[in-house]
Write a structure and sequence with these properties.
Layout (H helix, E strand, L loop, with lengths): L7 E3 L2 E3 L3 E4 L6 H11 L3 E5 L8 H4 L2 H4 L6 E5 L6 H17 L7 E4 L12 H13 L3 E6 L3 H9 L6 E2 L13 H10 L5 E3 L5 H9 L4 E4 L1 H4 L4 H21 L20
Helix pairs in contact: 1-10, 4-5, 6-7, 8-10
């Protein structure tokens, strides 16, 4: 089965790859670039707080190494503890996109995190910031806890995706919220992208098998012993999970089922 025509849409933009990457925590620039290439990703997220928009070429060398005709920038508001900070970061991200030649890029990965210890997203702040940014014309991709009710509210106000965490960001704990994520996927009419906590390719495959639209990850690749190989593994895992979902897996049975008929034996 080919995934060549299995595209998905965020806002008015169509993508082929269902693996999205962050750009932090890499040991060096070379491993970052090689991982991006091996992953086949079409979307890269960059934290605006790490970029000085007056001299971004010196601030984040990765920006100069990427072909922005092929890769779509997803600025994120990481580090924002309040609604006001997130909105400010979103506008800085839009300016950065413009400077990279993506004048029509209104994407923002919305993060409002007021909890410095566990880094859990603020549901009320996220909802407020999302509503304001949507009215300002942004394509909002909100990062949230795996909360089906919050997901529904964010979809109702016009968010373009829902991005529930699998487990705490950067933890590598895997998918700890599987049942809640299933409910979000079941109820959502917009893409559901699993973001945070993925540690192994099997984690990525698991959420794709239950119908997630895509996966966004960073630490699992960046902190691997061989990031470029892990990037390849994650790409294949996402593809395998997607094909499994499309093929329709068998339902688990309580008892063993014979694979050969139990009649018409040759005696």
């Amino acid at each position: 089965m080919s995934l060549k025509n299995d595209t998905f849409k965020i806002g008015n933009k169509i993508f082929n790859s269902r693996l999205m990457l962050g750009t932090g925590k890499y040991k060096d620039l070379e491993s970052n670039i090689k991982s991006i290439e091996n992953s086949g990703t079409e979307i890269i997220t960059v934290s605006v707080r790490r970029v000085n928009t007056q001299s971004f070429q010196n601030s984040l060398k990765i920006l100069n190494k990427i072909d922005w005709q092929k890769i779509w920038l997803l600025p994120n508001t990481a580090g924002s503890q309040t609604v006001e900070q997130a909105i400010r970061s979103a506008f800085l991200g839009k300016e950065l996109s413009n400077r990279l030649g993506q004048e029509d890029n209104t994407f923002v990965k919305l993060e409002v995190i007021s909890d410095p210890k566990y880094l859990l997203p603020d549901p009320i702040g996220t909802l407020k910031a999302a509503e304001i940014l949507i009215k300002k014309g942004f394509t909002v991709l909100p990062y949230i806890n795996a909360d089906p009710i919050l997901a529904r509210h964010l979809e109702e106000i016009g968010c373009s995706t829902i991005m529930p965490l699998g487990s705490p960001i950067g933890s590598g704990q895997g998918i700890q919220n599987l049942e809640a994520i299933k409910i979000i996927i079941e109820n959502s009419k917009i893409p559901v992208i699993i973001d945070a906590g993925i540690g192994k390719p099997s984690d990525a495959s698991k959420v794709m098998e239950i119908g997630a639209s895509a996966v966004l990850l960073n630490t699992a690749i960046a902190q691997a012993e061989k990031p470029h190989l892990m990037a390849t593994a994650m790409k294949l895992a996402v593809q395998a999970g997607r094909i499994s979902y499309l093929s329709g897996s068998i339902l688990p049975q309580k008892y063993a089922q014979p694979s050969s008929p139990l009649k018409n034996f040759i005696l």
